[in-house]
């Protein structure tokens, strides 16, 4: 099969063997794969937790048809249209644990649209509801809201009854579009006074919940923007993994600061994340209420060019590979 493989010179499409599913796994004929920023590091030879390294097939989410199921796999069958998370998705075939597989709704959802959803749904449901403890009426800020995961966060916050929903982007054109995906207020974090804008939007209280995909460059400003007893969930580090931290402000506001990643989660934990997400969100997914815009579709042979497009940070929404 053809697959995008990590080489000494970067990402390249090569012929590799079709993977064989273990008893708990599903083999899928991949039709489309969504791109994610973690894959940029993997393509450069860096590992992402246990994933990656020279010779690895890149790709954390995809959609296609089930070809084969392992002996221990429940409720999935060959021929079923599915969306998946896991590893090795930039390929004509990929395997993953059955607990990371969801059926594509029986509507007009394309494989390309389905491939944009698994990571965003799992990540933001876990950040907003499980770790962020979102309550109806909470003021919510999504940092880095113009990414695919960020746009999904805005929609989930709105769906689950948040009060004021705010999203940030440093790009003025992308910032204008955040209201299309559930934001009441678009925040420009290049303006040093942006925490005051959050305070104003929340009637002086501050954000009850901040989902932070940026981290170091906004860490202290996040705490200024947060409410007393606010929660900050660290999901990504697009603005740096290390920086200054105002411990006194953290204590003064009694902020719960929570870090999350999939890299250290067990298989059972990931299965539970997917189960909870589907319990809360699948009706909305099926109804077409939770969707992501596709910025551009590349063929598999142009996987390196697709990653270059992501690295240029000129896209809005998701970039997809078509097989």
From TrEMBL:
The keyword NADP applies. Residues 7-321 form the Enoyl reductase (ER) domain. InterPro entries: ADH-like_C, ADH-like_N, ER, GroES-like_sf, NAD(P)-bd_dom_sf, Zinc-ADH_QOR/CCCR. GO terms for molecular function: oxidoreductase activity. Keywords: NADP. SMART domains: PKS_ER. This is Zinc-binding dehydrogenase. It comes from Limobrevibacterium gyesilva.
